[in-house]
Amino acid sequence: MEGKVESLWEEVRELTLGTTVDRLQSPPTPLQFLRDFVSQNKPCIISNAIPHWPALSLWSTPSYLSTALSSSLVSLHLTPDGQADALVPHPSQSSLCFVSAHVQPTLFPQALDLIRRPPNHLVAYLQQQNDCFRTEYSELKSDCDAHIPWASEALGCLPEAVNLWIGNHLSQTSFHKDHYENLYAVVSGEKHFLLLPPTDVHRMYIKEYPAARYSYSQENGEFRLEFEEPERYVPWSSVDPCPARASLKQESLKFPLYFNGPKPFEVTVKAGEVLYLPSMWFHHVRQSPGDGGCTIAVNYWYDMQFDIKYAYFNFLQSLPCRSIDDQTIPEGDFEDDSGPHASSNHLNSRFSGDESATNNVEIHKDRDNVQVHERTFVLDSSMFV
């Protein structure tokens, strides 16, 4: 089976994806976007996509943002190292766990200052994701479009969520996938993506890890891990695509399908550009600050079609793969595939933060039910992948 799966990786690249991500010099027509990219589940970068946005000139000035949001209480995500929604060593076992950031309501000017001038052992990131641009940052709504017109026409709907991201070079996002069509617009700085198509799911070594959250004490400036009760497991990619040079060989032995397979697509999205990231593509993200000392982006999540493409993906990831079933990873690092938490067939929503938080939109998804309700936001974190 492994050889057939590896042939699929190569054939997808030869027949559809090529070796680089397409770059368009101007926005496509809705028909072109639907025909050439959405229907083929193929990413692209659109240059000159948002030149009319006031945000491009205004948001690079920190004083403008601090004034516009002077009284806004925002959800600030705090970690000791910039790794949130990521795998970290379990404090009492020789294994790993999945950890989310400490989320702290903070006045925006204070949050921005922590991002631009990070203290030691504290990394701040504004990344709430629960449609936060239209709630926590509504004062900025006139600075950019409410939706991407050509994408909305092609997809036949308006975005389900619009999010604002403000961070610095210390924050990274580990490999994951979203069940949304994602239009990701960079306003200041640069975003650096590693991309892999859904067909490469076995190369992600998805396992289930006990879920925890950072708790931060302002009194002593220390973080501690708090595990969820009752115990909950989160399916997550085991691969770190950028290990330290000293551990590269060891990581290559642990995850041969990733490190010995086709290289991921590497793209840098600059200010004024938009990345179309198709649903279910795995992506790892780093960032470089702009002139204002931070990286700022707005992304639009459009609901994906749960059609035959989704059925194909579920079938593919259910297939066993010898390099995963063989315990190439040291015993104790992961649950055995035959264990009670081995299934990786979970629908993913990349909303993080307080899962019981109240917001303007509720988005609840499972394999058999997709609903959107007004006013209350509730998420079952077991959906995260």
UniProtKB/TrEMBL annotation:
One of its GO terms (molecular function) is histone H3K27me2/H3K27me3 demethylase activity. Pfam families: Cupin_8. Residues 327-365 are annotated as: Disordered. Transmembrane segments: none annotated. Gene3D superfamilies: Jelly Rolls. It comes from the Eukaryota. One of its GO terms (cellular component) is endoplasmic reticulum. Residues 124-317 form the JmjC domain. One of its GO terms (biological process) is primary root development. Residues 341-361 have a biased composition (Polar residues). Belongs to the JARID1 histone demethylase family. PANTHER family: BIFUNCTIONAL PEPTIDASE AND (3S)-LYSYL HYDROXYLASE JMJD7 (PTHR12461:SF99), HYPOXIA-INDUCIBLE FACTOR 1 ALPHA INHIBITOR-RELATED (PTHR12461). This is JmjC domain-containing protein. It comes from Gossypium raimondii.
